[in-house]
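Entry for glutamic acid complex. Fields follow.
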Amino acid sequence: MAIPFDTHPLPSQRDLMATPFKRDVKTRAVYQEPTPTFDKDNPFQSMMERFDYAAELLELDRGLYEYLRSSSRIHITSVPVVMDSGELKVFQGYRVIHNEVLGPSKGGIRYAPDVHLDEVKALAAWMTWKCAIVGVPFGGAKGGITCNPAEMSPGEIERLTRRYTANLLDVFGPDKDIPAPDMNTNEQVMAWLLDTYSMHVRRTEPAVVTGKPILIGGSQGRREATGRGVMTSTLSAMEKLGMRPGQSTVAVQGFGNVGSVAAQLLREQGCSVVAVSDVSGGYYNPNGIDIDAAIEYMANHGRSLAGFDGAEPISNAELLALDVDVLAPCAKENQLTSENAGDVKAKIVVEGANGPTTPGADDILNENGVLVVPDILANAGGVTVSYFEWVQDRQGYFWSLDRVNRRLDRMMRSGFDAVYAETERFGVPMRIGAYINAIEKVANALRLRGIYA
Ligand code: GLU
């Protein structure tokens, strides 16, 4: 069937969605990936399930559907590292470019023992949707290396980072693909990446990476940006439900870069943050936790909350089931599942992490009337300030923190409103509203650019 790619006049949504996609047995057989079984913990499959739902509602053209669900390019590279012991070890590295229709691809790099291709593919696609929702001119990508950074020395991590960068030198570039921090990577790792790239191209190229130290071209407010976006998303959601920060309680799962900042800023807005957690477990204080004290404790105790005495210890399961107004999962994927979603008592779930809620859990939360602010909106603050950083690097002119924060707040709020409007238009959960908003933008951009043949 012909794909409607002749360009005039400018497309309406109906034009774009010309060939109805219906989820009946016949079409599913055509669209289905060869994977025979559904693994509920596989992030790529869980992403695709939501994508399919939104595509179905949009009656997305079949060709567009195929196009948007595919990764544009997948790079898998062996990364040899001489360890401190002298032993040579080879790590598996990935960089997946999901889509570049809206601009150069953008997305973080994570270092973790369970990094695998399907996870990186899902995270890359999420970046495409995230950038589209907040309106930053980037496509989506993600990278990762399967390794255990907790068992590696700084020197080993540096050599791993430099060799990974060198292997992917032709992939990265300020106008091509721009990495950033993600799980277990930080400003220092970005600095090594910047240096390695710059050495190869024989000039200092700050705009090749974001989330780097301010001294070498990073942006004010980048480190706090994801947590700040979680805070503004939470306030927007509260406004919709007529809740007041001063009368609301919050539980935050995860106390890393996202969770700790979100907790601190929500506290500043007047919320009572009654529970936080990290890998050492949960901490609960019904009178509100002193977040500054918790952050300081963590900094002085090997980046762990273990032994923090400003709250009583609880389990991770107990934290998720607390009787609070807002639950912010800011740790990692697959935390709210069909097994524990029924225990959630919060009125609002704000996803600081990528993919913390499985599709099964989504169904339960929706049925129970919980407003879920999805990851691709709620944690888009990070990539938004990454965009500001990239703009500043290219201009060689740097903004004040106040300017960064004002612009971030504005973009997060307008992203929220746009997603909420789709949610009301289609009568769907916010997550599906977010996918609809993003898919429409990327599909419209593709229609305008056309397919190069
Ligand atoms: N890793 C972050 C995310 O998942 C930030 C990506 C970026 O700034 O490019 O959104």
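NOTE: The CA atoms of residues 93 and 145 lie 4 Å apart.
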